[in-house]
Design a protein that fits this description.
With about 450 residues, this protein is mainly alpha-helical. Helix content is about 65%, strand content about 5%. The protein has one domain. The relative contact order is 0.21.
């Protein structure tokens, strides 16, 4: 095994790899509780039960998808990169596709499944690089930053810090409410943990917030800590139930959004973590195809189990910082995700005020992409800004992407930079125009 994972070549050992895998798990364990909360729309009151995914089933699907994805990444691609259902993509799934568009979550899972299958085909055919390179870097950064603002906005709503205001759309909530105060406390604690550099700060922040909620009576004590993993029956195979309903302009845009964001997340994470671990050779990423295959196949597995898009996690950098260098780090992380299956009773104490700080912090981390955009070039600034600001204001990641991708060719042509526009961008321009004409215009 040491020879397979190249321990000697990478200067590592079992102890370092185990610590790296555990550190990565603790850094991303929050997704086990945040993902069920997001996909069940737990922070949105008065919704029909049919719109909410079963939290227990999503918890199990999240853990298994993360374990399978991390195992494939570790064993096949041999990278110390773990996978799990992605933040941002789960928000798009729940708040845009299901809540705003009214698409059944079963159909949304079908969209995730198809995006994963397309990703596999693009990976095996080698077309993936052409598509990634066709999207200008500035729009990739804008998409990441816009999703960050959108996630943070959802977090502020879940916390009760931002509420509906009929006069001005949104306003400040009741900061004296017990649950809102608990969320604010959690945000402060998590920020402090992150600032002082605690690995797994988001996860520990959730634990401390939940403990404070139980001590103050705002959260009921759990009936148990360890229990049998929840059944997958409510979600398993649901992606096949409404498969025939994906052949519409609306679902095409949804599938493209799943695909694009997963592309950006994966490519960025692979390069960042591999570079940190010293795995990039001659400015190239070895086994990149295998790493992307691991990501895309994990998405397919996750969709069948019952969760939104599974993707590579930048939190893997914490494990690399702790010493992880080989794929065995990801294998260790996968083992901890499987072990976590037996702690499902804790789902009951991870309420909206507990997950809200995590959403806000993840939003802050994603908005760092703003600094990489060339704001001094107006033809770049316009589509980037519209992409970013439209996501939270329209409550739709897809709409933000559509607006930005429509304005980019317009501003670049007006500036006389039409030769820099890839033909694929013109195709996307047409698709997103049709999106507004047939989907938004018909509402």
């Amino acid at each position: 095994m040491k020879r397979y994972f190249q321990f000697d070549e990478l200067g590592t050992n079992y102890k370092r790899e185990f610590i790296g895998g555990l550190t990565t798990f603790l850094s991303m364990a929050y997704i086990l509780f945040v993902n069920p909360s997001v996909l069940s729309l737990s922070g949105i009151p008065d919704l029909p039960d049919a719109m909410r995914m079963d939290q227990g089933a999503v918890f199990t699907a999240t853990a298994i998808a993360a374990a399978v994805g991390s195992l494939i990444m570790g064993i096949l691609a041999k990278y110390p990169i773990a996978l799990a259902p992605g933040m941002g993509l789960n928000a798009f799934f729940a708040f845009t596709v299901v809540l705003t568009y009214g698409v059944p979550w079963e159909t949304a899972l079908s969209g995730v499944l198809v995006s994963g299958l397309i990703f596999i085909v693009l990976t095996l055919s080698g077309i993936r690089e052409k598509i990634i390179n066709a999207i200008p870097a500035e729009l990739k950064f804008a998409v990441a930053a816009g999703i960050g603002l959108f996630i943070a906005f959802i977090g502020f709503q879940s916390a009760g810090i931002i509420v509906n205001n009929d006069a001005v759309l949104v306003g400040l909530g009741n900061l004296t409410s017990g649950n809102t105060l608990l969320a604010i406390f959690g945000l402060i604690v998590t920020v402090i943990l992150m600032v002082v550099g605690v690995n797994g700060g988001i996860f520990y922040g959730m634990l401390i917030t939940a403990a404070a909620g139980m001590m103050t009576g705002l959260i009921d004590l759990p009936s148990a800590v360890v229990g049998t993993p929840p059944s997958l029956e409510p979600t398993f195979g649901a992606a096949f139930a409404n498969f025939g309903e994906i052949f519409t302009i609306q679902m095409l845009v949804i599938i493209l959004t799943f695909l694009f964001v997963d592309f950006f997340d994966t490519a960025g994470t692979l390069v960042a973590v591999a570079n940190q671990a010293g795995l990039i050779k001659n400015n190239k990423l070895p086994r990149a195809g295998k790493a992307l295959f691991a990501d895309s196949s994990a998405t397919v597995v996750g969709a069948v189990l019952g969760t939104s898009t599974t993707t590579s996690y930048i939190e893997s950098s914490a494990g690399v910082a702790a010493g992880g260098r080989s794929g065995f780090t990801s294998v260790v992380t996968a083992g901890f995700f499987l072990l976590a299956l037996f702690f499902s009773p804790l789902l009951g104490v991870i309420t909206a005020p507990v997950t809200a700080p995590a959403l806000i912090i993840v939003g802050i981390l994603m908005v760092s992409a703003l600094g990489k955009i060339a704001w001094d070039q107006f033809e770049i600034a316009v589509p980037a800004f519209l992409t970013i600001v439209a996501m939270p204001l329209t409550y739709s990641i897809a709409t933000g992407i559509a607006i930005g991708f429509i304005f980019y060719p317009i501003t670049m042509i007006a500036k006389g930079r039409s030769k820099e526009i890839h033909p694929i961008m013109y195709g996307l321009f047409v698709i997103f125009i049709l999106y507004f004409v047939f989907l938004v215009g018909g509402e």
